[in-house]
Amino acid sequence: MSEEQKISLRDKIIEASRNLLLDEGYRGFSLRKVARKIGVSATSIYLHFEGKDDLIHTLIDESIQKLNAKLAETASKEEDPVERLEVLAWTYTNFALENPREYLIIYVVSSDEMTRYPKEKFRKARQGYELLTETIEDGVIKGIMDEEDPRIASYTFWAQLHGVMSVVLTKRLDSRIDQTAFLEQAIQHIIDGFHVRTSVDK
Amino acid sequence: MSEEQKISLRDKIIEASRNLLLDEGYRGFSLRKVARKIGVSATSIYLHFEGKDDLIHTLIDESIQKLNAKLAETASKEEDPVERLEVLAWTYTNFALENPREYLIIYVVSSDEMTRYPKEKFRKARQGYELLTETIEDGVIKGIMDEEDPRIASYTFWAQLHGVMSVVLTKRLDSRIDQTAFLEQAIQHIIDGFHVRTSVDK
DNA sequence: ATTGCTAGTTAACACTGTTAAGTAGCATAG
DNA sequence: CTATGCTACTTAACAGTGTTAACTAGCAAT
What we know:
The first copy, chain A, is an all-alpha fold. The first copy, chain A, has helices at 2-28, 31-37, 52-76, 81-98, 100-107, 110-113, 119-125, 127-141, 150-169, 179-194.
């Protein structure tokens, strides 16, 4: 019972925090609001988290894990490295589109927050990136891609995707441009950039 | 005299704000600190800015203008679209590397801030992007590139660059990866993606 | 019955953005 | 030469913030 309640309060805090953060943005977020929302004193949060930073880092961490899980699931279903790269790109993009607010928690909130992001969480967060690296390595071995350093290439791929998504999600896209068209073209462009240059097909 | 002093206080506020924002991050930034730093009451800031948002938006705006000016200068020196794209990419990158804090003001601070960014400033900020679009359009006309929609392609290019830079600047890069190598390879990769696929060279 | 731990509490500190009201200093008008 | 009004600020106050320290019910074990 006490065990359950202990977990329960922590979870309540996390859930309320996520909602608050997504509804009101980083700016409107406050520990006291979270506490009020679940009918508990603000200082109770300190029983389960070191402070505001720690709480937010936990949220970021959870969202990253969720995204990574989807990526891992997708990757396991596709053998061919290029196709795999493509489904990974779309999994990433769709995750961002379907869970814009969770995706934004990862990136939008974290910019200033990132300097304080603990290394131990950072390490776990890199699983998705390692999946990418393996895929590209595989492509290089099979001669389908010709990347010099798969580790760098993997970061490039990821950075490109992130850049594209952040343009869409932070509403920086010109209103005359159709979002879906932009995404499709941009992703195709990114994928093409990784495919080995054949001296064939027309 | 009164004219000069009016301008002078506004400028003092801007300068102090920029320094504070860059030294202490968005989190450590406060109007009261800015005011203290220039020996004036906090409310005086409201004589020149509508509030914290407006002040920060002004900083963002100025940094964007500075970057855009550099891009425009660079672009005018290069005729060939592909080369032009390359020098633009490096101008962008170098600006970010040489003025990381000004670059970060543009992007890092703005994520949460962006929803409140006024449209009128947004319009001015797009000049750099329009330069890109023209370059790509030019490349398409000359048959060196084969982008379907230069406007979208331009955004893609910009988003990719931004993604790459943000990975570097927000310290998300794996410490085993050399930053310069990453940038060179990533940018080359992005440029390559825009160059038309020739059915020749080896 | 008392000790000690758990899971919370209240009170307080030093901050924050923002608004309302007040005030020196000066320029012009009568 | 006084009075009005404007400019460029200030002080006081409000409602909020993260965080720390000290306290306290309720329960478990000695």
